Amino acid sequence: MTSxxxxxxxxxxxxxxGIANIRAHANRLIARLHKELPPLGYTPITPKxxxxxxxxxxxxxxxxxxxxxxxxxxKILLTGPNSALTVGRFGNHVRFSVSVFNNDKDxxxxxxxxx
Length: 115
Fold this sequence. Notes:
Blueprint: H1 2-17, H2 19-36, E1 43-44, E2 54-58, H3 62-72, E3 85-87, E4 93-97, H4 104-114
């Protein structure tokens, strides 16, 4: 019953905000990542304009990226099924799953951590 109540609230929240607004919000944050990460040495492999809220970049050294994130004390979840940021799970890449709950501060934190 708890699961149903949680799903009901989630659907109400999505309907209140609107899918188009959620998509526009995620696309704006993804556009920032596309603009700001390549000069730092990250090569996008997710094409610009993709409607997915997931964007992936190649990195030269996934372990070095993990160390950067740990050293920055950034509060970014690196592991688990619902990670916002995944590093090197399938090779040398950084994968972001942008959500309605993310904001410009999160993107700033990521960019600072990966610089």
